[in-house]
Design goal:
single chain; about 230 residues; mainly alpha; MetI-like fold; 11 helices; about 0% strand
């Protein structure tokens, strides 16, 4: 309990005092996780929409793969990305291992199935008559997809939050592909693990509180977007 209380005070000191060792970690955590979430949106939303609206022979297998990917262990994602980026791997010559770019790739691998699965569920849950109505009014494929996404925008916002939450809080893949290098690849989760290993529990609690604060801010942003949703007729 003393460590918990000390952690609260330490978190306040770090944030308000402009701790030079903590703010770079916070900013890198945000940069890596937000970029990975954006990549997951660019890949996952089109994939989810395509699976929801199209029919083809392997569709059940593809949907099963997406849902299975939603539960992909971060360490497995980190291992796969490490194999590709290792010096003897297909992309080893790029020298991306133990860089923020490698962490973004690994986190995008984790978040993309989450975004794709939730998009698939959101679009698939829409009334089929809505799509038929759009087509009957002469809307093209892209226009129809756009209006369907607008109709399902609130579940899609939840998909954004879920994708971001999946990557901002993970530690296994970040450690494997980033290496937890001070000033280069150290993020809040890996820094917390490091402080626990050193026995600095107050500092570890402080970093955890900062991480929870970032998650809370995203949740507040979601709530504000929900309040701004126009009333439906």
């Amino acid at each position: 309990m003393d460590d918990l209380i000390s952690g609260l005070g330490e978190a306040a000191r770090m944030l308000l005092g402009g701790d030079p060792d903590v703010w770079p970690v916070i900013l890198l955590s945000l940069r890596v996780s937000l970029t990975a979430t954006l990549v997951a949106l660019l890949l996952g939303v089109p994939a989810g929409v395509a699976l929801a609206l199209s029919t083809f022979r392997g569709r059940p297998l593809a949907i099963g793969a997406v849902y299975a990917g939603m539960g992909l262990p971060p360490v497995v994602a980190g291992l796969v990305v490490s194999l590709f980026l290792w010096r003897s791997g297909p992309f080893g010559a790029a020298g991306l291992l133990y860089t923020p770019t490698a962490m973004i790739v690994a986190q995008a691998v984790i978040a993309t199935p989450v975004v794709a699965g939730l998009t698939l569920t959101a679009v698939g849950a829409l009334d089929p008559r809505y799509r038929l109505q759009l087509l009957s009014l002469g809307a093209g494929r892209l226009q129809t997809t756009w209006w369907l996404l607008r109709e399902a925008r609130m579940p899609l916002i939840a998909a954004v939050v879920a994708g971001f939450g999946a990557v901002i809080s993970e530690v296994g893949a970040a450690m494997m592909v980033g290496g937890n290098i001070k000033g280069e690849t150290r993020v809040l989760t890996t820094a917390t693990v490091l402080e626990v290993g050193r026995g600095h529990f107050a500092t570890a609690f402080a970093l955890s509180f900062v991480l929870l604060g970032l998650t809370y801010l995203v949740t507040v942003a979601l709530a504000l977007l929900q309040r701004q949703q126009p009333a439906r007729s």
